[in-house]
Amino acid sequence: HARIYQAAGAPRLQSIIAGVQDAAMLYVAHSLAVAPDRIKDGNKEHRALIEALRKRDGDKAAAILADHLDATFQTIAANHAEAQPAKS
């Protein structure tokens, strides 16, 4: 992730993204532990993103990244909801 952000040449954006990633890392790690298929899917998304970047296809890269982030968020949200104690 960091290498892609560095390549963008936007240090302020890189700093903001790093902060968000640090805050989310515990949730991501937990979600990946309980949804191991997401790791394979995420790796495929990473490869597709790198390919789009190599081809300098910004629109495709943006779409792949948006889908990747959405899928990651959905996995985190689903696993977080399942981990919540039942309300009485």
Provide a descriptive summary of the structure in words.
By secondary structure, the chain is mainly α. It has one domain. It has helices at residues 2-7, 11-34, 37-54, 58-83. α2 (11-34) packs across α4 and α3 packs antiparallel against α4 (58-83). The model has no long low-confidence stretch (mean pLDDT 87).
Please supply descriptive tags for the structure shown above:
88 residues, 4 helices, globular
Structural class, by secondary structure, is mainly alpha
Number of strands: 0
List unreliable stretches of 5+ residues.
none
Distance linking N and C termini: 41 Å
Order of helices and strands: HHHH
Number of helices: 4
Instruction: Please describe the biggest sheet, giving its number of strands, its sense, and whether it closes into a barrel.
Output: none
Helix content: over 70%
